[in-house]
Amino acid sequence: MSTTITAAVSRITGQPFSLETLELEDPRDNEVLVRIVATGICHSDLHMRNAPDRVPKPIVLGHEGAGVVESIGKSVKKVQPGDHVVITFDSCGACRWLHRTKLQRRSDSQSLFRPVVVCRL
Fold first, then answer.
1. Domain that holds residue 49
2. What are the Cα distances from residue 64, in Å, to 2, 7, 77?
3. What is the structure's pLDDT at 20?
4. Overall average pLDDT of the 90-103 stretch
5. CA distance 34 to 121
6. Residue-wise DSSP of 39-103
């Protein structure tokens, strides 16, 4: 079963984001689906949108947000549906900050999406 989402998509370098309806697959074993309730677009998102060769397009950018876990993959242990979380940039999975704050790594399954880290509040 898939989930219908609304996302700001960068399709053309330097052009405005377009709000689009997309289908998102259910979480794979190590993935978390978060219903976003607050988000931001920062300068690095704009830089990636404007960079012709840094990221493939189309792409859904963004690494800042807060929301509620909707569903989890079979191997996810650190968050559960209903948990309130914040989302930040990707991590190597080995740094002291990851272990100190008990972050759960998430990698997306579609090429439009980038990996993010989900932090339980």
1. 3-120
2. 23, 14, 22
3. 94
4. 51
5. 13
6. E---HHHHHHHH-TTTS-SSEE----EEEEEEEE-TT--S--TT-EEEEE----S-SHHHHHHTE
End-to-end CA distance of the chain: 28
- How many domains does one find in the chain? 1
Q: What CATH number is associated with residue 37?
A: 3.90.180.10
What is the rounded distance in angstroms from the CA atom of residue 77 to the CA atom of residue 79? 6
| Per-residue pLDDT tens over the stretch 36-61 | 999 888 888 899 899 988 888 999 98
HSE-CB at 77 with a 13 A cutoff on CA atoms is 2
Look-up of token digits 């079979």: 74
Q: Is 23 exposed, middle or buried (0-12, 13-18, 19+ CB in 10 A)?
A: exposed
Q: Which of 3, 11, 116 is nearest to 59 (CA)?
A: 11
